[in-house]
Amino acid sequence: MKIKIALLSSICFIVLYAQEINYKFLGPFSGLVGAVSVEGIKIHPINTSTILTLERSFGGVFISKNGSIVNLIDLKSSEIIPTAHFSLDDTSTFFTQTNGIIFKVNFDDKQISIIHQNNPDILSQFVSNPKKTTVIFNSRDGTKLYRSDDGGEQWYLISELPNIIEALAISPSDTSVLYAGIGGRVYRSSDSGINWEMMTQQDGYGLRKIMVNPYNKNTIYLIYKNNLYVSYNAGITLQPLLDINGVNTFVLNPIDTLKIYAVQGDPVFQPNGFVFRTTDGGSNWSIINNNLPGISVTPLTIAIDPIYPETLYVSNGSMGVFKSTNGGNSWEQTKIVGSSVNSLYLDPRNPEEIIAGSYGWGLLKTTDSGMNWFQPNIWGYYHHYVVRNISENPFNPGEFLVGSRYSVLRSTDRGNNWFDTGQLEGARVIQYHPTIENLVLATTIYPYAPSNDDTIWRSTNNGLSWEKIRVGLIEGYHFHPDNPNIIYGISKHMGRVLKSNDAGMSWEDKTNNLPNLQVETGQCLALDPFNPEIIYIGLRPDINEPGGLFKSTNGGESWIRIDSTLSQLDQWMRITSILSDKQKAGRFYVGMSQYNQPYTPQYSNGGLFLTEDYGKNWGRVYDGAVFSLYEDYQNPRNVYVNTKFGLLKFLDTLTVTSIYDYSSEEIPTEYKLFDNYPNPFNPTTVISWQSPVASHQTLKVYDILGNEVVTLVNEYREAGRHKIEFNASNLASGVYIYKLTAGSFVSSKKMMVIK
């Protein structure tokens, strides 16, 4: 009952599915890491080969060791994860926050626990005592400072500050000294955070980060008024150190504190950014962007190896994370972060050759099935920003057309070199007809399109010239396998299905009795390869209405709903893609993205689902957002899943006989109490546990003060896996503890009720 994810040379396990699935992580190794005030790279201060990378767009964490990704943590977030903090006492534990909830994560044991929900939703700060590693300080609810003496297991309030704690730091040379940024001013404590003194008298703003000189407890460096400042008298007076109107963050060389590095850049407001370095304490600065790639170098965050401080990591816009081993003199790309793709091409002649369209790089290519990626030569200016669609000429293999935001690109040498055709600005979709030579269909989108509307285009000379067919937005073209004149188009305009009977010259609406819902992508429609009169379409949910899966058996003339069992696995069904099996009738995959606010009862995490009987029974193959699906030409085929982390690949040998509930018939070998799900919850959650032998077992719930609230189980239970639903309708919002006792085994965990 395991999913194996083969991450390059490493294996991690996620319990999801009743069969063993070998996933291989392919990359590509790009992604938007960090942002202004968001530090997206964290190096373990003791074991510096372990690095956390926070991809800012989805709430995911990449764990890398020795330069390779070894684990993926999905915190099911709808917002940027602002930061993470390693436990000094445990090399596999870190703390992080998203959607106002503070987590403790152990990535070796795959344990994620909630330790607090901020009220209001204010960014929490963490610092650890470098001399007593089990001591951690954590700000909560904006103004409260908590302390743990046991590595984060138990916490107690030590002080409450007069305003929101915006930054927190501890002196390495005297760990009784703490600094805090509060209301744009520097505060200092000399008794480990119990009492505080306001040091800075003048008004300020933008005090986001403080670092203390490791050799002098009175010298501090800070982001203040959006620039880099220094104070040599514990914050009484502040003076500019790098005044450039927009420093994202900075790092200090812990051995030679005259060396300081800072980054400036923003993907929207300041795409032309810089990496700065000083070797004389800030008197002189130099720019060390050097060989960082891209028309616009956009450094978002920077991290320094505390043991080997000539080693630096910088995130560069959407192009991923780059590493320097010589103090910033030169940079090379790392493999410590991944990202989803906009489109994918799999070479039918060489299964290891893949071309991906992405944001940032534009186009990336691999010839070794994802071990290494490189950017082809692109003769044009802005095409590295968005490439949405890749299509190969079926009559001239190795020739491609690509739709990008600014025009159509062409390659005639298997995607190694690309040139700008200067046509169809705003090309969202471009697709060769599989059986009519030189026929290409395309869609351009407003406001980039050459007309003032979304437009459908047609070319009969291999894209040399284009004819405007009609106003409309077709997200994907789907071709009848037997009749070349029949083409189906899928539009985001309220789930509209369009059909052409004359090879794209004219189109008629086949939405008919479909509900008034939109589609998510051009992959939300699929023709049955054994009977093309059978069509499947997935619609996305609306505010109060779930999405759904529908089927037509007459070429779109009428539709029926076929998701009654699928909805049991994902209640909202935000369908993004459908992939049919060309070898077995009735067998197809459905991909879904996440929907609604995380950590609420209405949240759906999405996933990949498989049916082998035309939608009667389903199995969840992957738990997490899926954006698109692809297949290669092997037998058995490989399925490529475009996730928030990047591309996952697995061999398609799965079977389905029922609706999976993630249970296993194997007798467990140890006692274990699992995290309740969902958590937080309102009003119900499921508590699960396992026992290797039969015994009398009790499961009780307590409030945060230790008072017993309810006894859920008090009986003899057989060996195996057990679960029970807990209804908290009569309880107030807050943190509760559930405790399992089975023989001599005792274990407890926290859960949170939110109303």
Automatic annotation (TrEMBL):
Identify the InterPro entries for this entry: Secre_tail, WD40/YVTN_repeat-like_dom_sf, Xyloglucanase_GH74
Q: Domain Secretion system C-terminal sorting, which positions?
A: 677-753
> An example of a Gene Ontology BP annotation on this entry?
xyloglucan metabolic process
Any stretches that span the bilayer, and where are they?
none
Question: What name is this protein filed under?
Answer: Secretion system C-terminal sorting domain-containing protein
